[in-house]
Here is the input.
Amino acid sequence: MIEVFDLHKGFNGEEILKGITTNFERGKTNLIIGTSGSGKTVFLKCMLGLFKPEKGRICYDGEAYSEMEEEEQRSLREKMGMVFQGSALFDSMTVEENVMFPIRMFTRQGKEEMLEKANEAISRVNLENANKKLPSEISGGMQKRVAIARAIVTRPKYLFCDEPNSGLDPKTAMIIDNLIKEITEDYNITTVINTHDMNSVMEIGEKIVFLKNGYLEWEGDKTQIFKTDNEAVTEFVYSSNLFKKVREAQLKGL
Amino acid sequence: MFYLDDIGKYVLMLRGVFSRMTKRSVLKDLIFKEIDDLIIGSLGITVFLAFFIGAVVAIQTALNLTSPLIPKNLIAFASRQSVILEFAPTFISVIMAGKVGSFITSSIGTMRVTEQIDALEVMGINSLNYLVFPKIIAMLTYPFVIAIAMFMGILGAYVAGVYGGFVSSTEFLSGLREEFIPYHLVYAFIKTCFFAFLLATIPSFHGYYMKGGALEVGKASTTAFVWTTVVIIISNYIITQLLLS
Here is the structure.
């Protein structure tokens, strides 16, 4: 479980996160949503330890990150998996080497053992035939799967995904969403996903945190988000024509 | 103030490079890869440049020796001194600032833009050590490149001088051995080692701390080249003043 208390973060005098307090439960897919510039990525990067908050605390299973020694912070990071928006695969490494990389860095296992674990993660994301290919030789959807395989290969306790289905077609996006949900349940990990895709919200949103201008505007789940009276959330949810029409139909009782 | 801020950041970067070392077996592979990219990959251009620089120095020296009282073997002596003291260590290093420097800045800068450095940090890896330290170690073999450049420069001078009809082979070889001071080689290699460190670290600094997208990667490469050259030229003056005067 990740708990966030009164989190503040700014850049060059401008406050981006303005006192966020929330929590993300284990075994659930937790979504952070909001318009571009609402502070989603900064929030995620604070949780990853890439940005140091000016104020507030982030606790991982009860332990505050800011109060940990440097060595403890490093070992906590080893328990985190991250899927970046652009996949962030290492260009010079093959798919297999990319997935094997975290094990190679932190364990003293033999090559056979490492390969076995890497292949297990690769098959978990249904990507068996691309082991020897370079990231530039596979599609965007496959790159996302490799990124997920790399993130889960060390069996992390926390999985973070920054817009995992951006730039993907709706079908592939749905496959990626469901894959993340399955992994979260199978491995019983705390998953936090940044997105502004309403399809993801409908598909996997077990807990949803809505950010607006750096504030936590609303939180709930995927059924509550369609019933809320919060104006900012409603405006966000029904900003697409499809959802607008669904809403109109609902109001007309169709 | 802006430059002071950058100098401070550079020193802090160096501290980061030498702390929290990456696993030895991984480092070993990275170092061999960097030697291949930075050193072996630079041999061709170095050999080519050094040969022709040596040849031009020999021709120009020969054409300026108009007095019959000056012995012809001075062509070899002047070429040797120019190549060993300046052309091989400094001129080649300035060329390397363009070749190796822009490669380092653009490769690290692209990793920054595509969040690969963030990925390393999230995994708990010291990205500075992982990315920059192998480059510094690989550049320890840079004096080997300069030694080849010295040899090729003198060979170029020999070919241009002898086959161009400016000096006989015997005169050239006697001039080459005349008043040879081994300390000059020591001086040349001391400054080469210092330049190697600058060539590995200044472009890494510009790549690692760059912000923005593809356009900024290009800008960072240019800035890295300019600053590496400036620092090489200034440090060349200081080292020369300290070691030779």
Notes: The longest strand of chain A covers residues 14-24. Chain A touches chain B at residues 45, 48-50, 74-75, 77-78, 80, 82, 84-86, 88-91, 101-102, 104-106, 160 (CB under 8 Å).
